[in-house]
Specification:
The complex is a heterodimer. Chain A is globular, with a radius of gyration of 20 Å. In chain A, 78% of the residues lie in helices and 0% in strands. Chain A starts with a helix and ends with a helix. Chain A has helices at 2-15, 18-50, 64-90, 94-126, 134-155, 159-173, 176-186, 206-238, 243-253. Chain A is built from nine helices and no strands. The longest helix of chain A has 33 residues, at 18-50. Chain A has one domain (62-192, 205-253). Chain A is mostly helical. In chain A, 37% of the residues are buried. Chain B contains two helices and no strands. Chain B is mostly helical. Chain B has a domain at 25-52. The relative contact order of chain B is 0.07. Classes of the chains: A mainly alpha, B mainly alpha. At the A-B interface, helix 2, helix 3, helix 4, helix 8 and helix 9 of A face helix 2 of B.
Chain lengths: 254, 52
């Protein structure tokens, strides 16, 4: 057990070095691309074509296989960013700042997908595209926080200072996550209660629930893929004047 | 066969909603794949020009 822990610790320390991360990610990327796209597509196909039709909503409920994983991923990415922000502030690990910066557009994208697909789902079920409901409004605020993080980082030239600034914003912004989560309990909302709960059994039948779980896995893998790609680009941009970049790029990488 | 495909596409009259969600998902993920690759390509070209 101790050996495994030491191995994990060493791996994390190694990944803190941009050249080692770049080298490692070059090896892992094709595998990650293959696995993530396969799980993602299989999950979506299963949910969209092979899961049973809902007796109340009909086929429109199938939007759940896109909307719910996107919404939960949008929130998870923010929590991940807050952890990176904490590491950047406390230990000043260079790559954690790059991770935070790279994760922000992905988190914003999945939150936007959740907002748009939720809006499309709302039209046939609620009869409206948008209501200023607590869940919808708090998710919109999360999207604005993501936009603020992206904007703030690009407005500061010194990247170390920019990393610290967005670390603070992500640590302050984390307060929105419990509000989103609890919004359906604290306020009277049009939005249904949470689909997932750690304390109670799922309200869906297994043949609807299983593809949803696979979709979750697929979405998280897609996030890992996008994060690796974004981080590689960020590492190269920041270290472009270092000798290892031209070496890996011109001799090994391509 | 054609009937089966049209049933899948129409999804009981809800096809437009479901397919547009799928389109949005793939479109946004596509952008997220394209942008970092474009950045890497730009740096690659810059480095290549410098090396030459």
């Amino acid at each position: 057990m101790n050996k495994i822990w030491n191995y994990i610790k060493d791996w994390f320390i190694e990944m803190g070095s941009p050249p080692l991360f770049f080298k490692w990610s070059s090896k892992i990327l094709p595998w990650l691309l293959f696995i993530s796209i396969t799980v993602f597509i299989v999950g979506l196909l299963w949910g969209l074509f092979y899961s049973p039709t809902d007796y109340k909503q009909g086929d429109v409920y199938r939007i759940i296989y896109i909307h719910v994983p996107s919404a939960i991923l949008g929130q998870s990415i923010f929590m991940f960013m807050a952890i990176c922000g904490f590491i950047t502030m406390v230990w000043r690990v260079k790559i954690s700042g790059m991770l935070l910066k790279s994760a922000a557009p992905i988190g914003a994208s999945f939150t936007l997908i959740a907002l748009l697909t939720g809006s499309i789902w709302g039209k046939p079920t609620w009869g409206t595209w948008w209501v200023w409901d607590a869940r919808l409004t708090s998710t919109l605020i999360l999207f604005f926080i993501y936009a603020a993080i992206i904007g703030l980082h690009s407005s500061i030239d010194d990247k170390t200072k920019a990393d610290r600034a967005i670390s603070i914003l992500s640590l302050v912004g984390i307060a929105i996550i419990p509000i989103i989560k609890k919004s359906v309990d604290w306020w009277q909302t049009l939005h249904q209660p949470s689909t997932f709960s750690l304390t109670s059994a799922p309200s869906m039948t297994p043949d609807m629930y299983q593809p949803l779980l696979l979709c979750f896995l697929g979405f998280y893998l897609i996030f890992a893929l996008l994060l690796t790609m974004n981080l590689r680009a960020e590492v190269v941009i920041r270290e472009k004047n270092r000798s290892w970049v031209s070496k890996q790029f011109l001799n090994l990488e391509r | 066969m054609i009937e089966q495909i049209s049933t899948i596409i129409s999804m009981d009259g809800n096809g437009l909603y479901v397919w547009s969600c799928l389109f949005i998902l793939f479109f946004i993920i596509g952008i997220n794949i394209y942008l970092p690759n474009r950045k890497l390509n730009r740096i690659y070209k810059e480095n290549k020009t410098k090396a030459q």
